[in-house]
Amino acid sequence: MTASDSRAPAASRRALFAAAVLVGAIGVSAGAVVTSSLRLDGATGDWRGASEGLYRSGQPGILMAGRQVVVHFHGLDGRPAVLEVVAAARPASPAVILIATAGRERLEVPVGLEATSVRMPIPRGTHDVDLFIEANAIFRVSRIAVIRSLSATTAAVIVMAAFLGVTALVMTWRTGPRGAAIVWGGLASLAAPLLWTFAADPASSLRVAAPTRDALRVAVVAALWLAGLAFARSRLASAAAIVGTVALLHLPTVWYGFHQDDFVLARGWSWKELASTLHGEFDPSGMIPSYYRPMVRLSWALDHAWWGPWTAGYHATNLCLHAAAGVVLVALLRRLALPAPGALLGALAWVAHPLAASTTAWVSARGDSLMAIFYLAALLAFSAPGAPTRRSQVTLALLSALAFGTKEMAASLLLAALLLHRVLLPRPDRALRRRRLAVIAAVTAAYVVLWALLFAGKLVGRVSSGPRWAGFDLHDPGHWLRLIPALYAPVFFPTWYEEWWLTPLEGWSWLYLLGALAVVAVSWWAGRGTPRGGASATVGVVWPLLTVLPLLGLPSTLDLYRLGYLVAVAIAFVVAGIAIRVERSFAALAVLAALLAASLSPLSIDAARAWAPDGFRGREFLHWKGTEPTWVGQLTPEMRGQFQDTVAWHCHARRWAFPDSPCP
Where among 127, 149, 171 does a domain terminate? Predict the structure, then answer.
């Protein structure tokens, strides 16, 4: 062994040690920050999320307070703490009396021109605290703080952050680029603090203003995608990138609570009731329109058995389903002979797409993600190489039946299989695949017959009523011209959910609609640079036209941001096709990934936030159902109490600060 040969391992060890120190420091720093005390003021943190009745003043960092103010933190980690509000009077009212109430604690504090601290103890085990302040005059607030000390649990979070980071670094150090290994280590070191913040101490996220918080999440998503692409051939790294993306974008939805149909579906079901959904409506109570979705009902029954009325558990199931669908999509794209980097980037673009966000934020939307798992798995089985065996045929039939038993969107499965059969799959095997097509066709026919027998009246109503898509008028030629661009726009050129929802079909400018078509055309052209890329892009362009067909029979306005989960898979094929063209240059692939992460992630966060109690979808529901005593009265006692708690939680602070609030 030469001297240079002996120096190489030593240099590698020194580099690994230095990287481990860096990654460990990132983990310790991140853990220390997220477990420390919270301090908010007019310039720091999300004071709006922690208060009602405060507003900006003309002085930097100083907030003005009305005569009734609420300072509230929800989702604390249970450590004993002190809630502090630093207040001062205005020169116009030099003597102010504050009456602060939190639970049974009550303080009366005189406040002058000098800053005075109002401190209220928070007992151990407290997760939600509301400090109601009543004043005889308007006053100023210079700081809001939750002061708490380190505990054994939070110390473990800090240690775990460093441990996970170093472990990930060591695992990836010799299997890929060292820079990417360091990024993986840094991301892993952030995992424990972020999981702690979102799952155990969500109030801690208020230390950062909402826009900055979202920007940081998008930046970490982009870094995760780049690290994942560097290890795209590793199935474990690909799965970690998918799961990490879902967590970064949607883990806050765990605390969104129930919405609309959730209150009906979250209850215990007997085996007899579950069996009845196999040959009847998926909600025998009749509170929800009739559908054939026994698999969705089974998932709700299992969730209720595991979680009871704890809403966060149901949301966690939705997150797992969304991540699982992304992993299955990666496997499908790779089986279609698309290179690993393109397959991963395509699946990541779909997971982060705003049309896929509702399945994480609204528990009842899990039908789409659960159906997509079976749907994509069926296509995966259909695309298997070689001659079909009896076992593979049975597996394909079972997966197809499970997809149909989850949601009606699976009716497009045969068309999707035909599309892959003709465009992406090898031509020499077409004769062998016809036997698999026959299996899907047989299952589809059986489903259509069963559905027609169960819901004959509904079928007649659907046919006679015709579609209504964002105010679509069958007799308006202009609406027909806008129809295709309006379908492609949310998939390939998405905008903010609320803006899309409130804008009728004729309200979109031709510039936007033509821009959407231009994006489709350019994306297809970009993918045409290689044979596989062109085939993948072609599938992506045709995919929305086929998968949207089951939705066109809806008797109400079609909300693609809520129902377009499967339709949005199109972007995965198009992105994969483009990635094939640029994959030889990792720099170009990284630029493409960064652009996609920066453009899709904010829209996905916004679309999910619409289903929060204070989101536009959440507000619509609370205001409507809060005035419908008949609907509330039909709920189980457990869910009736859950709904009333949801309304009370949403409105309690606002009603105190603004007695004329329109909360239901």
Answer: 149
